[in-house]
Fold this sequence. Notes:
Blueprint: H1 2-34, H2 41-66, H3 68-72, H4 85-113, E1 118-124, H5 137-150, E2 158-164, H6 171-182, E3 187-191, H7 193-204, E4 214-218, E5 232-234, H8 239-252, E6 257-263, H9 266-281, E7 285-286, E8 290-292, H10 298-308, E9 318-322, H11 328-334, E10 339-342, H12 348-358, E11 365-370, H13 382-403, H14 409-414, E12 424-427, E13 430-433, E14 435-439
Helix pairs in contact: 1-2, 2-4, 5-13, 8-9, 11-12
Amino acid sequence: MSDQRSHDLMHKSYQVLFLIYAPITMISIALKAMGGASVSFLYSVAFFAAVMSLLVMLLIALMILRHKKRLNSELESNLPFVIRHQFMALFLPIAFVSILVSSYRLYDQRAQAVEPLENIVVMVPLTDALDNPSQELRQIKQFLGSFLVDYPEISKNYRIELLNHKHQFDDALFAQVLEKSKAGSKYIVCTFSDVCSKLLAALQALPEDVPKPIVINTLASSTALPMQPNFSYRFYPRSLESVRALAGYGTRSGAMTASFVAADDNFGRNAVEEFGRAWRSLGGTLDEGVYLNPIGDETVLSTRVFERFSEAEKIPDVIFVSLQQPLNNILSELSKRTSLLLGMSYHNEAALVLANGAGEHASNIVMSYPDYQIAQRELHNTTALFLYLTLNKLIETDMRLKASPESDFDALWWEGIKLPYLNIERIENDAAIDVIARPLNESIFAIEPENRASVSIAP
């Protein structure tokens, strides 16, 4: 009988231990799988064990109250006090409270030592609308790889999350942005004017009591983007400076008539509006051009451009080009008959291919680009460069904000905005970066590698 009771006691002990530690183990595994835990398994177990100990203590207390009369009968027994129920009733609460306090203290110290990662969402076109690799993909990879290699310590405090917007903005994309914001992402880096303008409009339409992330716009030149303190900022040359440089170059060359080929979206129409204003202010005339679907097939788009400029009398002195999708074949043909003024949105690598294909007419292809004070190979990669500079500026500002919580993000953002090799001027809530225009074969893009200065572009 004694052996049977011992067996039953041991069996029940194992059951109790299983009931206590099985949930602890399962919860720890679940936290690990979800990826949200920032404390180790040891400290997690210590915390949950303390919680379970508290529950067991409450259970024992209830049972003591329930069997109080049976406990009083032990007063007449000769058992040592340390193994009597009276002693256990005093000892267990003290033990469990001690475990609870010490475990929680240990857990709390560990949790405070490991600060949560600041999540920064970077909205970029990894693919196009048809899920083909985007024109910018190579430079996006270059930007992210270069940044993580140059600043490996950033990964200890920041997590960079890429969100593929495919050069389009819809309700599904906005829902993802809101989900990231609700999960704690305070910053959104947005690229390209059309997507950014629609994102900002959607965020502004939210109720005032809904927390909104701070949006940093880059690779977005449209002057129609709303820049507001502690809400929206830009770190990229504006179309205003770009078209002024192109219009100035064109009129100084003796051109008087102009037309355009532009994307049929917020970005393209804003660029044409700014160019027309600048061109007319210098005495030129702007004829009607052609707006193209920004995600259309190249062959179809080229046909539309050809139809517009097929007749000799329809060819103006210059054609302003404001596209993100390259149309090298048709533009190469047009460069043999007129000058092309390429806005900054035209992909650098595509522009170089266009100039090479134009041959002896390469001098007719003029491109605007930031007025760099150095000549360096990395400056070819405008997309990668400004993604790099924008993310670096944002993280630098956030680190200073964390070091001085009483400071304001807006004030810290504008402090030290200028770079030693790029002139940046604050104009109200926007930033203006100096831009120049040159024929591609005379620009920084044509400088041979051995003639470039060996100066680092990292801030």
